[in-house]
Automatic annotation (TrEMBL):
Gene3D superfamilies: Aspartate Aminotransferase, domain 1 (3.90.1150.10), Type I PLP-dependent aspartate aminotransferase-like (Major domain) (3.40.640.10)
NCBIfam families found in the cross-reference section: PRK07582.1 (NF005758)
Name of the protein described by the UniProt record: Cystathionine gamma-lyase
Required cofactor names: pyridoxal 5'-phosphate
Biased composition (Gly residues): 1-14
E.C. number: 4.4.1.1
UniProt key word Oxidoreductase: yes
Length: 385
């Protein structure tokens, strides 16, 4: 690891680096006079003579545009071993497919108490089906204490929005020994920042809406697994509930992967620069970014992450102070997502559901020049006083 927040990974299929893999993953071999990435296939049904057989039977089941994106995602999340990816209409569709397809009445699911609030909102639905749900924080591998008898362990690292990190390998080994499946929400890290399958997880899950596609213009989710039966179960869930992505969204997502390494590297470096600047301000407290050497999560993050992500969190004295700060920003939009090439920020407590102070800010750092991002934040902090 370096001060920029990570390094370029190498190895895997063909020994290629992450940037090369991001550009070429899932694209067909070059053919004269044809595009390097064929356009989206808009179809509900296929010509299907005789007995139903073949790769494409119906538009809710498969689509050639999905196939190319899924191959790309499998290569990014699992460059060293064969894997299958399944794409969904949103990150929550992907999360729901893993949770709801693999637990039954009487089973126990362990969720982080500090994970994405809509993931935690599954608790009521699961309990209405007779599933027991246990919650424990991400930090300190606290979920280890509630694994007894669990069928599924859900991990989110770094956690959203508080940026705590847990030891995925340790949790996965303990959970597997207890007979539980392990899923990791890899949204914030991206497959170039962290590879859960290499750390022992059964499922790598993410919202492609965020940093993976990075332009704030589509909704998408995905699941990547190495076990064929698990892949079949999430595919069947997608077919059954119809949580399929549009072909245009899938094509845009694949198109966006070509710049993934460039964006991840730039945003990690920018986020670290902003976090360092924020720590110098007296009115700012609780600055968190896993790339900071003195961050509580840094030791564990450095052992399992290659890039530390684009998100910085910090706390201003109160809600009014935070609102004044957000209003004074000139380069940064006030938005609830993260991972875009455009810097965004929000007072996270406005939604409820997260146990954060009223002045808690989640800042998603874009690819603008680091000096400009920092200057904008400092002038907004001055104005907020």
């Amino acid at each position: 690891m370096g001060d920029s927040g990570g390094h370029v990974g190498r190895g895997g299929r063909g020994g290629r680096g992450d940037s090369t893999r991001s550009v070429h993953a899932g694209r067909p071999p070059a053919v004269a006079y044809e595009p390097s990435l064929p356009g989206p296939v808009f179809v509900s049904h296929y010509h299907l003579p005789g007995e139903p057989a073949g790769p494409y039977l119906y538009g809710r089941d498969e689509n050639p545009t999905w196939t190319r994106l899924e191959e790309a995602l499998s290569q990014l999340e699992s460059p060293d071993a064969a894997a299958e990816a399944v794409v969904f209409s949103s990150g929550m569709a992907a999360i729901s497919s893993v949770v709801l397809a693999h637990v039954r009445s009487g089973d126990t699911v362990v969720l982080p108490s500090d994970c994405y609030q809509t993931t935690r909102a599954l608790r009521d639905r699961l309990e209405s089906y007779g599933v027991r749900v246990r919650l424990a924080p991400t930090a300190g591998e606290a979920q280890l204490d509630v694994l007894d008898g669990a069928k599924l362990l859900w991990i989110e690292t770094p956690s959203n929005p508080e940026l705590d990190v847990c030891d995925v390998r340790r949790l996965a080994e303990t959970a597997h020994a207890a007979g539980a499946l392990v899923a990791v929400d890899n949204t914030l890290a991206t497959p170039l920042g962290q590879r859960p399958l290499n750390l022992g997880a059964d499922f790598a899950v993410a919202s492609g809406t965020k940093a993976l596609t990075g332009h704030g213009d589509l909704l998408l989710g995905y699941v990547v697994v190495r076990d064929a039966e698990l892949a079949a179960s999430v595919r069947l869930w997608r077919k059954t509930v119809g949580a399929i992505p549009g072909p245009m969204e899938a094509w845009l997502a694949h198109r966006s992967l070509a710049t993934l390494q460039l964006r991840v590297e730039r945003q990690a470096a920018n986020a670290l620069a902003l976090a360092a600047a924020l720590k110098e301000r007296d009115e700012v407290s609780g600055v968190r970014h896993p790339g900071l050497p003195d961050d509580p999560a840094h030791r564990v993050a450095a052992a399992q992450m290659r890039w530390f992500g684009s998100v910085v969190s910090f706390v201003l004295p109160d809600q009014d102070h935070a609102d004044r700060f957000l209003t004074a920003l000139r380069l940064t939009s006030e938005a609830t997502s993260f991972g875009s090439v455009l810097s965004t920020a929000e007072r996270r407590g406005r939604w409820g559901g997260d146990s954060v102070p009223d002045g808690f800010i989640r800042f998603s750092v874009g690819v603008e020049d680091a000096d400009d991002i920092v200057a904008d934040v400092l002038q907004a902090l001055d104005a907020a006083k």
